[in-house]
Design goal:
- Homodimer.
- The protein has 449 residues and is an alpha/beta fold.
- It contains 14 helices and 13 strands.
- The strands form three sheets. A seven-stranded mixed beta sheet has the order 2-8-7-6-5-3-4, with helices on both faces.
- It is globular.
Length: 449
């Protein structure tokens, strides 16, 4: 399914179920969608943990030999099966790894000389901000989301303090409208138009880590640059999740980690991008010394590298990127839209708020419903205590994550998750909600004596 297509996931699900003679909520539809899935072979390229391998699992409730429902790819991607092969090969031969940049070029939509694998995400962000954030008395603000990932907040605050600026005045943070969870594009553009002459750098997420909102990268970039701002993005939750065209969109700079949707493992090698238009004007450091020779920086993004990328970290990333090389981001995105749409459909089918039955537990989806405004992640909030629901899901072999104050993040990843995974999650969620409600009722009763 093309993101620009007018056919919504729910329409495809209902039409397909009608042809099969079943309800869209029937497991029969999940099995059919998996059978027709052109990317189903990619699941075999990853190690799917068994239920018994997840420490919080209660084996009295589930079959420990079953594969778990792994919906935590937005936090830590699964291990590709070829990682051990490549690592063993390197340890035996200590040879130079194959070139992996070509895969990153395709996934990020950059030119080859605009991207590099290096360091960690926050290190790369600091290096880029040192070059792009050059405040003047008139233009000294940095615009970002109020709910940006904490390390991005810290990095921005550090950059402001480095220049001796007042954080309260120069850290311009955008909040959603009252009563809303996500930012409206028109509000972002309005702030840029109003405050743009005083903004030096705009730094947004590609996909917001908490809500799962996919920002309109090209429109934000265009609006910021028209006001004379540099525009950069933290793509930790976007790279490998949605289609990116960084070069064509004219994004000034971007950085990302690789252990989420790129599956490189915890602490994996990060990536950085700088548009070629800045190669002559932007330099990471000014190198001066008293020696008779001059130090010459590499041109472009490679001038920001602090050292060669560690070979063993390259190997784990290579194993994942070669799986990406078996398909395209367009095909992955097409499956992702339907897979997440299926999850959304079933949640609404079973757990929508029922005004006529206030006792019935319900689930609210925080993530935007428009497919062009989200990746694969859905962020859920519950009418029941979130910690209780999360604990019951863990007991039943579901890997997802909870974020304070009241969010459960679930991410069906098209590389390795199936439509049956989605259906299993919904079934398990029902059991988890029932147990959570019982626990809440028992607590209320005990408190009444």
């Amino acid at each position: 399914m093309d993101p620009s297509s007018s056919v919504l996931p729910e329409t495809i699900l209902e039409q397909t179920a009608s042809r099969l003679g079943c309800s869209p909520a029937d497991k029969k539809l999940a099995f059919h969608l998996d059978e027709e899935d052109e990317l189903k072979h990619l699941r075999k390229c990853f190690f799917i943990p068994k239920v018994k391998d997840l420490p919080p699992t209660d084996l009295s409730l589930v079959n420990g030999e079953e594969s778990c429902v792994y919906f935590a790819g937005n936090s830590l991607g699964l291990q590709p099966r070829n990682v051990k092969t490549y690592l063993d090969e390197e340890l035996d031969k200590w040879k130079t790894p194959k070139q992996v940049l070509i895969f990153i070029v395709v996934i990020s939509g950059a030119q080859r000389h605009e991207v590099a694998l290096m360091n960690g995400l926050t290190v790369n962000l600091h290096l880029q901000m040192l070059s792009f954030f050059k405040p003047t008395p008139r233009r000294c603000k940095i615009l970002l989301e109020a709910r940006a990932f904490p390390s991005d907040h810290y990095a921005v605050e550090s950059q402001l303090r480095l220049h001796g600026l007042d954080v309260e005045k120069c850290m311009l943070m955008m909040q959603p409208r009252e009563g809303e969870e996500t930012l409206r594009t028109e509000d972002i553009l309005a702030v840029i138009e109003k405050e743009g002459d005083s903004i030096a750098v705009i730094l947004f997420s590609g996909v917001q880590y908490y809500t799962g909102q996919l920002f309109d990268i090209p429109r934000i970039t265009k609006a910021g640059q028209e006001k004379g701002c540099f525009v950069g993005f933290d793509l930790a939750h976007a790279v490998g999740n949605v289609e990116l065209h960084l070069h064509d969109w004219g994004v000034d700079f971007a950085c990302w980690c690789s252990y989420k949707y790129l599956n490189s493992g915890a602490g994996g090698l990060a990536g950085a991008y700088i548009h070629e238009k800045h190669f002559q004007s932007i330099k990471p450091f000014k190198l001066e010394n008293n020696f008779s020779f001059k130090l010459q920086l590499s041109e472009g993004i490679n001038g920001f590298r602090l050292s060669n990328p560690p070979i063993l970290l390259v190997c784990s990333l290579q194993a994942s990127l070669e799986v990406f090389g078996q398909t395209t981001m367009k095909a992955l995105r097409r499956k992702s839209i339907l897979l997440t749409g299926y999850l959304e459909y079933l949640i609404k089918h079973y757990y929508n708020e029922d005004k006529t039955n206030p006792e019935k537990p319900f689930v609210k989806i925080i993530t935007p419903s428009q497919i062009e405004e989200r990746g694969c992640q859905l962020t859920l909030s519950f009418s029941l205590p979130i910690k209780s629901v999360f604990k019951e899901l863990e007991k039943r072999g579901v890997a997802c994550d909870m974020r304070e104050p009241n969010a459960l993040r679930v991410a069906p990843v098209p590389l390795y998750n199936s439509f049956h995974d989605v259906h299993r999650f919904i079934e398990i969620l029902g059991s988890a909600i029932t147990s959570s409600k019982q626990t809440a009722n028992n607590t209320a009763l005990s408190g009444s004596y």
